From TrEMBL:
Domain Glycosyltransferase subfamily 4-like N-terminal: 31-186
Alphabetized InterPro entries for the sequence: Glyco_trans_1 (IPR001296), Glyco_trans_4-like_N (IPR028098)
Source organism, top-level taxon: Bacteria
Alphabetical list of CDD domains matching this protein: GT4_MtfB-like
One MF annotation (Gene Ontology) recorded for this entry: glycosyltransferase activity
Pfam family membership, one: Glyco_transf_4
Keywords tagged on the record: Glycosyltransferase, Transferase
UniProt-recorded name of the protein: Glycosyltransferase family 1 protein
Keyword Glycosyltransferase listed: yes
Domain Glycosyl transferase family: 206-355
Lineage: Bacteria, Bacillati, Actinomycetota, Actinomycetes, Micrococcales
Length: 384
């Protein structure tokens, strides 16, 4: 990439190429993709690259803390919570803003992006779940439009970033994108210095922590329905965070009479999450499908062993540092739960493996790979 950096210095438009970062979907309520954008650009700021950055924020995002962003943030006036306004903004307005600001490149970090080729663009496509598992998407009527928008964004993009080999292969399969235009740059986790695992005490009556939104592919119901198969003498309490508003899991908990065993905490603060990490027996992710596994990395960094669905992308991220189970099989989930609370020696081994595995990832590496993709996209524009 040294040659790319040198060639950029000879480009006619400016010494510091300007990159417009599409933050229309950033509202403070979207979870993993927002973590990606925030931690990526925090690391890019530390990298002190040759680029100038301007963020195009949703009206909700503009009201939030912007100290993580390495440049000016402007208010688009577009609501990231209104799907129609947001979709229109992604398709048509981002490029207009890029032209208005004389940007040399657009980066859309949340899977969808512009349908125009008027300004070179890089889009980060996290997964292909609307294509691979449309039956598990929470808004069926939205599946067709999302697939159309993803295809248009992929067609318009100069280069495409993705976060795992599994997602890369599915982008090639479903969107018919040439692998030559794709760069795999994995995410990382963020270790919290406030997590104090000395508070954890191994006991048969442990606590499993699950965190994430309530989209159907996350399969939280699978954990709840498996719990009665674990004998009460060793059955752990399960804490599930991440819901906004009325929790759809509450009806399942009531149906099974598990109010004593399941704690639905909804959305929690960073401090609350650190306290849960400090006392959890394990972090559980029972998803049917995914594009990565950021919660697993963050748990491993905190010294919390992880229990994961045995799906290819989780194997890619966590290797031998997880206790795996079959997400469609309640008996398999229950067996994994039993192991987690009755085999502290094995779980301690997973903690050590987790530290080793998580050390392979860093936001510094994510930033470096992303900046290389920006350089390649700009070089493609000039044919150098």
């Amino acid at each position: 990439m040294a040659g790319l950096r040198a060639s950029l210095q000879l480009l006619p438009f400016r010494i510091m190429p300007k990159i417009l970062v599409d933050l229309l979907s950033y509202t403070g309520t979207k979870g993993g993709m927002e973590t990606y954008a925030r931690e990526l650009y925090r690391a890019i700021a530390a990298a002190n690259s040759e680029f100038e950055f301007v963020g195009l924020a949703s009206k909700e995002g503009f009201a939030l803390d912007q100290s993580w962003f390495p440049g000016t943030v402007i208010d688009s006036g577009i609501s990231g919570e209104n799907r129609f306004a947001w979709a229109f903004g992604e398709l048509f307005m981002v490029t207009r803003w890029a032209k208005k600001l004389s940007a040399d490149l657009i980066h859309s970090p949340a899977t969808l992006g512009t349908m125009s080729r008027a300004v070179p663009s890089v889009v980060t496509m996290h997964d292909m779940l609307y294509w691979s598992h449309p039956n598990l998407m929470s808004t069926g009527l939205y599946t067709g439009p999302v697939k159309w928008m993803e295809r248009r964004a992929a067609q318009a993009a100069t280069r495409i970033l993705t976060i795992s080999d599994v997602s890369r292969d599915e982008i090639v399969k479903f969107l018919r994108v040439s692998p030559d235009r794709l760069d795999v740059v994995p995410l990382s986790g963020t270790a919290s210095p406030s997590v104090d695992r000395s508070r954890f005490t191994s006991s048969a009556q442990g606590m499993l922590l699950a965190t994430g939104n309530r989209r159907p592919h996350k399969n939280w119901e699978g954990i709840i329905r498996a719990l009665p198969l674990v004998p009460e003498g060793i059955r752990p309490r399960v804490v599930i965070t991440g819901s906004h508003g009325d929790d759809p899991l509450r009806a399942v908990v009531t149906e099974l009479g598990l109010e004593k065993w399941i704690d639905l905490k909804g959305w929690v603060t960073a401090e609350d999450l650190e306290n849960l990490y400090s006392t959890a027996t394990a972090m559980v992710m029972p998803s049917f499908c995914d594009g990565f596994c950021l919660p697993a990395l963050e748990a491993m960094m905190a010294g919390v062993p992880v229990m994961l669905s045995d799906i290819p992308v989780y194997r890619e991220v966590s290797a031998d540092a997880a206790l795996y189970f079959t997400p469609t099989d309640s008996a398999s989930i229950a067996a994994a739960i039993s192991t987690a609370v009755t085999n502290p020696t094995f779980m301690a081994e997973l903690v050590e493996r987790g530290y080793t595995q998580a050390a392979k990832y860093s936001w510094k590496k994510t930033a470096a790979g992303t900046l290389d993709t920006f350089r390649a996209a700009l070089a493609a524009r000039t044919g150098s």
